[in-house]
Write a structure and sequence with these properties.
The chain is mostly beta strands and 115 residues long. The protein contains no helices and eleven strands. Strands 2, 4, 5, 6, 9, 10 and 11 form a seven-stranded mixed beta sheet that branches. Strands 1-3-8-7 form a four-stranded antiparallel beta sheet, with no helix packed on it. A hairpin with a 6-residue loop joins strand 4 and strand 5. The termini are far apart.
Length: 115
Amino acid sequence: QVDLVESGGGSVQAGGSLKLSCVASGDIDTIRAMGWYRQAPGKQRELVADITRSGRTNYADSVKGRFTISRDNAKNTVYLQMNSLKPEDTAVYYCKVIISLYVYWGQGTQVTVSS
């Protein structure tokens, strides 16, 4: 069993910053990819950013230049630094981790950006 615990969500004004963290624990062998997704009300869940074990990153066009994903392999943790937040970034943010052939999701953390 693998548990993912997310933290760092909250409410900020447009232009502000937040940093999300996701810690994986449990029956972990080697974590392959880690990433962040988000889901706004009435919309499908979408990729925000992901990162491979070697550190290769991938971002949604809507967050490029504003968000930075990073990971600490020793701590089984992935981070998402979010700067210059916009109201359209408001969503529940989910951590996703791939271990071997299995995909695990966090419980989600709310990010609300007011104008």
